[in-house]
């Protein structure tokens, strides 16, 4: 009997260990709706920092303090949580920076998330401030003009041209800021927030607040099953297996 129980626990442990999501996901709540954010494994320093802050509830009740139509919506300034109306925001943050993880294939397509930064030469990112890209769609001729005038002759790759002529985005930011995730759902909330009325500092006249919640291990597994065309697993046996693991998970 003891041997059978041992084998059973080993089997349970093996199954539970195998059930692990491939990415981290965050539920983004706003007054304009909710979205699901996928964080890239290719930018582990930004990914892990964002996961840490989301788990701590750092972003809850912060504002989108800088909003520019056809460009982006920016948040993550801790000073925005209790800021009075019409106060200029954007200078708050944490006491450390994240090393740049800029990659040529992680571009500023509409719906991606990038890390804000100051003008430091190493292009290190703010530890807390981020932006969701809205941008706009470009014609091929418009991209030609962008290369010539805004990008000083630097050529866009075929991937960039395809993305910016179909999905849209902000190509002139590529190579200058770290892109570390993308919205899987809810991209329309970026459009809704991007058109709100703002003051001379680009701060919305009506506060647009944020809340971030990291998806649990089971929620992330079921989300990935959904995108594979599979049914979610929420049976009693699944919950029993899940009880042997922590609520959250670590990606190496």
Automatic annotation (TrEMBL):
<dbReference type="InterPro" id="IPR002130">
    <property type="entry name" value="Cyclophilin-type_PPIase_dom"/>
</dbReference>
<dbReference type="InterPro" id="IPR044666">
    <property type="entry name" value="Cyclophilin_A-like"/>
</dbReference>
<feature type="signal peptide">
    <location>
        <begin position="1"/>
        <end position="18"/>
    </location>
</feature>
<dbReference type="GO" id="GO:0003755">
    <property type="term" value="F:peptidyl-prolyl cis-trans isomerase activity"/>
</dbReference>
<dbReference type="Pfam" id="PF00160">
    <property type="entry name" value="Pro_isomerase"/>
</dbReference>
<feature type="domain" description="PPIase cyclophilin-type">
    <location>
        <begin position="33"/>
        <end position="211"/>
    </location>
</feature>
<protein>
    <recommendedName>
        <fullName>peptidylprolyl isomerase</fullName>
        <ecNumber>5.2.1.8</ecNumber>
    </recommendedName>
</protein>
<dbReference type="GO" id="GO:0006457">
    <property type="term" value="P:protein folding"/>
</dbReference>
<dbReference type="InterPro" id="IPR020892">
    <property type="entry name" value="Cyclophilin-type_PPIase_CS"/>
</dbReference>
<keyword id="KW-0413">Isomerase</keyword>
<comment type="similarity">
    <text>Belongs to the cyclophilin-type PPIase family.</text>
</comment>
<keyword id="KW-0732">Signal</keyword>
<keyword id="KW-0697">Rotamase</keyword>
<dbReference type="InterPro" id="IPR029000">
    <property type="entry name" value="Cyclophilin-like_dom_sf"/>
</dbReference>
């Amino acid at each position: 009997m003891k041997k059978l129980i041992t084998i059973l626990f080993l089997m349970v442990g093996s199954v539970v260990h195998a059930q692990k999501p491939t990415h981290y996901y965050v539920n983004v709540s706003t007054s304009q709706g909710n979205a699901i954010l996928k964080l890239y494994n290719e930018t582990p320093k930004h990914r892990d920092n964002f996961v840490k802050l989301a788990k701590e509830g750092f972003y809850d009740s912060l504002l989108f303090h800088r909003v520019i139509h056809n460009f982006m919506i920016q948040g993550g300034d801790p000073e925005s949580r209790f800021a009075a109306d019409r106060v200029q925001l954007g200078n708050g943050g944490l006491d450390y920076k994240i090393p740049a993880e800029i990659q040529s294939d992680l571009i500023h397509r509409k719906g991606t998330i990038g890390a804000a930064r100051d003008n430091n030469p190493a292009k290190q990112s703010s530890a807390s401030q981020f932006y969701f890209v809205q941008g706009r769609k470009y014609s091929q001729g418009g991209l030609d003009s962008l290369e010539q005038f805004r990008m000083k002759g630097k050529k866009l790759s075929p991937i960039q041209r395809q993305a910016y002529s179909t999905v849209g985005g902000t190509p002139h930011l590529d190579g200058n800021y770290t892109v570390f995730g993308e919205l899987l759902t809810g991209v329309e909330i970026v459009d809704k927030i991007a058109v709100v009325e703002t003051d001379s500092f680009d701060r919305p006249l009506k506060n647009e607040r944020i809340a971030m919640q990291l998806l649990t291990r089971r929620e992330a597994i079921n989300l990935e099953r959904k995108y594979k065309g599979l049914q979610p697993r929420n049976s009693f046996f699944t919950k029993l297996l899940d009880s042997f693991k922590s609520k959250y998970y670590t990606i190496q």
